[in-house]
Specification:
This protein has two domains: about 20-120, Homeodomain-like (Arc Repressor Mutant, subunit A, Orthogonal Bundle); about 125-270, Immunoglobulin-like. Helices cover about 40% and strands about 20% of the residues. It contains nine helices and eight strands. The strands form two sheets. The chain has a five-stranded antiparallel β-sheet with strand order 3-2-5-6-8, with helices on one face. The chain has a three-stranded mixed β-sheet with strand order 4-1-7, with no helix packed on it. The model is unreliable at about 1-15 and about 140-145 (pLDDT under 50).
């Protein structure tokens, strides 16, 4: 069985079957309560009225990721919020979100968010100049430079007015850590992603509709649009068919977006 890293964007191709939706929504609602984030697999299965084995299959088929990883994503999302909205130390936040080891918390946070907890707390200050540059000058180029086109396509948002949009290539269908490569758009339109080695990837996108992208970029939530395509096979530096990327609004059963989107923005301009 392929192991999927805990992460952000797990976008099922279609809405989950109605027969399972209410059951899984009840469990996810409980997981979103701080006091219930320590629920075990058996606890979640009991809440759903299913055996642990059947529950795991139904949960993954409905949300796109296993229940344990969904719960872990919620814990990291809460950690991000506490880092930005409180003065609690990293150690205090580690225990607040249910980790028993500071080392384990820091390692997982860094791997899946893309920066350490301390660096994440400083991102608003570190990325401010780059948001100013995007706001005034705009940006529609690729994040990496290459003479070979890897992936090309067109972004079309529901209302035709996409905000700041991050598009990345990931090894799996879940956005975890930093993408292999990617691009940033400031509006609907054509895009091109360069620099990906030959292989199989999933293209995942997050479009921010909040009028203040600096805040929404750190903890994407309400109003965010997400989209996906794949698996895509890159051979000899490109794929033959352009991608038609149509992001949609987050659904109640989508996991939180964990990756630190500003890191992509900051790294793009550090290359210039």
């Amino acid at each position: 069985m392929r192991r999927s890293p805990t992460g952000a964007i797990a976008v099922p191709a279609a809405p989950p079957p109605a027969v399972h939706y209410a059951t899984i929504e009840r469990v996810v609602t409980a997981l979103r309560e701080p006091a219930d984030r320590a629920l075990s697999l058996h606890d979640m299965a009991d809440l759903a009225g299913l055996s642990p084995f059947h529950f795991s299959r139904v949960f993954r088929g409905t949300t796109g990721i296993p229940p344990g990883e969904f719960n872990a994503a919620l814990r990291l999302d809460q950690a991000k919020r506490l880092l930005l909205e409180t003065e609690l130390s990293v150690t205090e936040i580690c225990f607040e979100v249910g980790y028993e080891s500071l080392g384990a918390f820091t390692t997982r946070f860094t791997r899946l968010v893309g920066v350490s907890p301390g660096q994440f707390r400083r991102l608003p200050e570190l990325t401010a100049p780059f948001f100013e540059r995007v706001t005034h000058d705009g940006f529609t180029g690729p994040c990496t430079r290459s003479n070979h086109r890897s992936v090309a396509g067109r972004l079309t948002s529901p209302n035709g007015k996409a905000g700041l949009t991050f598009i990345g290539l990931f090894p799996t269908g879940i956005a975890s850590g930093r993408p292999v490569t990617g691009t940033i758009l400031t509006a609907d339109g054509d895009f091109q992603i360069n620099g990906a080695p030959d292989g199989a990837y999933h293209l995942l996108a997050v479009s921010l509709t909040d009028p203040d992208p600096r805040a929404a970029c750190l903890i994407p939530a309400d109003g965010v649009l997400v989209g996906s395509a794949g698996p895509l096979t890159i051979r000899q530096g490109n794929i033959p068919t352009p991608i038609d990327l149509r992001p949609r609004r987050l659904r109640p059963l989508d996991p939180p977006i964990i990756i630190a989107l500003p890191v992509i923005l900051r790294e793009r301009f550090m290359r210039d």
